From TrEMBL, chain A:
GO molecular function: ATP binding
Membrane topology (UniProt): Peripheral membrane protein
Subunit structure of this chain's protein: The complex is composed of two ATP-binding proteins (GsiA), two transmembrane proteins (GsiC and GsiD) and a solute-binding protein (GsiB).
Source species: Kaistia terrae
Compartment list: Cell inner membrane; Membrane
Reactions catalysed, as given in the entry: glutathione(out) + ATP + H2O = glutathione(in) + ADP + phosphate + H(+)
Function comment: Part of the ABC transporter complex GsiABCD involved in glutathione import. Responsible for energy coupling to the transport system.
Protein name as catalogued: Glutathione import ATP-binding protein GsiA
Superkingdom to which the source organism belongs: Bacteria
TrEMBL record, chain B:
PROSITE patterns, A to Z: ABC_TRANSPORTER_2 (PS50893)
Membrane topology: Peripheral membrane protein
Protein name: ABC transporter ATP-binding protein
Lineage of origin: Bacteria, Pseudomonadati, Pseudomonadota, Alphaproteobacteria, Hyphomicrobiales
Domain ABC transporter intervals: 7-256
Molecular-function GO term, any one: ATP binding
Keyword set, alphabetical order: ATP-binding, Cell membrane, Membrane, Nucleotide-binding, Transport
Species of provenance: Kaistia terrae
């Protein structure tokens, strides 16, 4: 089964009454259990594509189905999709509310989705990313960038997603911390049977993480790579 | 080692007061360098940026810098007053920061920003300043220097912004350039271009360069020597080309933790911080 099926996806933004075509005719299919990479220069549309799949950008044309469920444009996600598709953002500084303690940030998705035992689930989620329960009482500014990104991952995992969308999850981090986060993602993926869509401008990260990948340019998918091509270093070549 | 007289640092420490007594973020480090390219590597929080700030007199209060010896071109930096520092910064030591979006003044035209060091540090007249600024903008590889001269920072891309920052730093011809993660805000393809340019300009002017980076591969490719910092100490010193063969566990992990297509399906090595601290 494909987890993601996208056909002829188009996104245009209005910029002072001039339409700007951000995504043109994207065709994409991502299988269950896959890690799929998206790479390309800034402004190529890779983050926009990710936001469409996340349901954050609903203004698109074409057809899309996620986890076997057809998703119409201009509608919010309904039912299970709200839990099963989660996202981790690039900037661990901006993605956590500066005046909410970690515990509150993590409880929010649970409360919104009406899940029971929030405290226990928060403690479990923190343990999954290597924290003790006392971190719940801290503020984001008391944590380092890598620690915050682990919190963001814990928050995304609370709802046991099938599909995790990762928008440059390590580009704001040191090389050594990046290694820790990538290892964590690989471990959690195996443990919870997730699929990943990983956006990165770093071909090494894509080559390390992905089963398949696509290079985007000017809103289109320019090249796709299978594992053999990635292993041969094709993602790094221009 | 090249002529070691450009910069001499002995027992440089940086301390900040806290509720639990002073916290030392740089622990009495010593090194010397000539007109060479020195890489300063380490994780965030290892003290490499704080070292750079101490060298250029920009450790913000209440931080305190102490050193047994700190000389540039034979002149004692520890004795400088804030007023004298103002003269030294820019004319003798230049600093290039990570992100041009934050380091350039958003409401000042590029031309004025590039000329500013000349205004502060030289007697050059207006016409000469303009001429030198345009020449500098051309030297840093901007395709249309005149247009860049009249632009504002938001009209430039990240790579162009970084070239402008390099121009503002080099125009007063400092002896030492400190580049603090100069390329980490740039796309990968641009990184080597900007570094190549920086190295070319540094070589032409026979300046010293301290390149601060957490990317060991970058330092290995672009620098002569490397100092590896961990928690405020220099834990490893070696020729940059030898980084790949380092025996120090910290340096080895920093080198080996880079992901690549060959590491697919394997766990990347990570720092065993408990062991490192026991060893330190």
């Amino acid at each position: 089964m494909s987890l993601v099926d996208i056909s002829d996806l188009n996104v245009t933004f209005r910029d002072q009454d001039v339409g700007r075509h951000i995504l043109r005719g994207i065709e994409l299919s991502i299988g269950d259990g896959e890690t799929f990479g998206l790479l390309g220069p800034s402004g190529c549309g890779k983050s926009t594509l990710l936001r469409v799949i996340a349901g954050l950008n609903r203004d698109w044309h074409g057809s899309m189905s996620l986890l076997g469920q057809a998703v119409p444009p201009r509608r919010r996600f309904t039912g299970k999709l709200r839990q099963q598709v989660q996202m981790v953002f690039q900037d661990p500084y901006a993605s956590l509310h500066p005046r909410h303690k970690i515990g509150r940030a993590l409880r929010e998705p649970l409360v919104v989705n009406g899940l029971d035992n929030p405290d226990k689930r928060v403690a479990e989620a923190l343990a999954e990313v290597g924290f003790g329960p006392d971190v719940a009482g801290r503020y984001p500014h008391q944590l380092s960038g890598g620690q915050r990104q682990r919190i963001a991952i814990a928050r995304a995992l609370l709802l046991r997603p099938k599909l995790l969308l990762l928008d440059e999850p390590t580009s704001a981090l040191d090389m050594s911390v990046q290694a820790e986060i990538l290892n964590l993602l690989v471990t959690l993926k195996a443990r919870f049977g997730m699929s990943f869509v990983l956006v990165s401008h770093d071909p090494d990260v894509i080559g390390h993480m992905c089963d398949r990948a696509a290079r985007m340019a000017e809103g289109q998918i320019a090249t796709t790579f299978d594992r053999a091509a990635l292993a041969a270093g094709a993602a790094a070549a221009r | 080692m090249a002529d070691p007289t450009l910069l001499n640092v002995e027992k440089l420490s940086v301390r900040f007061p806290s509720d639990r007594g002073p916290v030392e973020v740089v622990h009495g480090i010593s090194f010397a360098m000539g007109a060479e390219k020195l890489g300063l590597v380490g994780e965030s929080g290892s003290g490499k940026s704080m070292t750079a700030r101490a060298l250029i007199g920009l450790v913000a209060k209440p931080g305190r810098v102490t050193a047994d010896r700190l000389t540039l071109d034979g002149e004692d930096l520890t004795a400088l007053t804030p007023r004298q520092w103002k003269h030294w910064r820019g004319s003798k030591i230049g600093l290039v920061l990570q992100d041009p979006k934050f380091a350039l003044d958003p409401v000042m035209s590029i031309g004025r920003q590039v000329e500013e060091p000349l205004k502060l540090h030289t007697a050059a007249k207006k016409a000469e300043r303009r001429e030198r600024a345009l020449a500098m903008l051309e030297a840093v590889g901007l395709p249309d220097p005149l247009r860049a001269y009249h632009s504002y920072p938001h009209q430039l891309s990240g790579g162009m912004g970084q070239r402008v920052m390099l121009a503002t730093t080099l125009i007063a011809e400092p002896r030492l350039l400190i580049a603090d993660e100069p390329t980490s805000a740039l796309d990968r393809d641009l990184r080597d271009q900007v570094l190549d340019l920086m190295l070319k300009l540094v070589d032409e002017r026979q300046m010293g360069l301290i390149l601060i980076s957490h990317d060991l591969d970058q330092v290995a490719r672009f620098c002569d020597r490397a100092l590896v910092m961990y928690r405020g100490d220099i834990v490893d010193r070696l020729p940059a080309s030898e980084l790949v063969n380092s025996q120090h566990p910290y340096t080895r992990t920093l080198w080996a933790c880079r992901p690549s297509p060959e590491t697919f399906g394997t766990m990347l090595p990570t720092l065993d911080r408990v062991r490192l601290e026991a060893g330190a």
